[in-house]
Amino acid sequence: SVRQEHDESPNPNVLGTPSNRRESIAVDFANSRLRYAINHEWKNYVYRPLEIINADKSYFVNLWSQTATPLRNPSLKNYPEIFEKLPQFFLQDILKTRAASLRWLGESRFQERRQNVITFINRNGKQTALYFDAETKLLSKYEFFIAHCRLGDTKKEYIFPSYRKAGEFLVPTGLKIQIAGENEAEVGYEKIE
């Protein structure tokens, strides 16, 4: 379940108003298949799209208007914003596509814990810093600068507050997205298999 903040607030000092957004993601990397569903409710607005990638049978489905549109050139590579929410996919993608730009930056502190910081250039050409907890070796957060329409150049952070066991792996319990230190969204991961 996702609690998303939007930049549609009439008050220039407030980043947005809360809405409820639920995402369901099922990925089969071996066969390049994806099912990505959203249920987004904000004030009187409801948006429920579904995207299905399954080779040549790939569609964008609008559940509200009950229409299905074939996707052109469907590929998992077209969905980096989905995988950036989950470290296990995000880090694999960095190693496959951005490894040449990885650089050791040094040590820092985040949430009173020592961090090892590595930078890379992301798909949009922005230098991005990865913060790994020095003790657990898990990704604590990653950050980069954005040009914000009201705040100017400011830092955007994707923070993974804690991890839990899922089988033999540790996975995040959620994600907090901050702009200029203010919450833009808080995501709780209900089930990761």
What does this structure look like?
With 193 residues, the chain is mainly β. It contains two helices and 16 strands. Strand 6 (59-62) and strand 7 (67-70) form a beta hairpin. The two termini are 16 Å apart.
Explain the layout of strands and helices:
Layout: E1 2-5, E2 18-28, E3 33-42, E4 45-47, E5 49-54, E6 59-62, E7 67-70, H1 80-83, H2 87-97, E8 103-110, E9 113-121, E10 127-133, E11 139-148, E12 152-159, E13 163-166, E14 169-172, E15 174-179, E16 182-188
Antiparallel strand pairs: 1-2, 1-16, 2-3, 3-4, 3-5, 5-6, 6-7, 8-9, 9-10, 10-11, 11-12, 12-15, 13-14, 15-16
The total of helices stands at: 2
Low-confidence parts? 1-10
Shape: globular
Largest sheet: 14 strands, antiparallel
Helical coverage, percent range: under 10%
Give the rounded overall mean pLDDT: 84
Radius of gyration using CA atoms only: 18 Å
Distance between the termini: 16 Å
Number of strands: 16
β-strand amount: over 45%
Sheet/helix structural class? mainly beta
Series of H and E elements: EEEEEEEHHEEEEEEEEE
Short description:
This protein has helices at 80-83, 87-97; strands at residues 2-5, 18-28, 33-42, 45-47, 49-54, 59-62, 67-70, 103-110, 113-121, 127-133, 139-148, 152-159, 163-166, 169-172, 174-179, 182-188. The protein has 193 residues and is mainly beta.
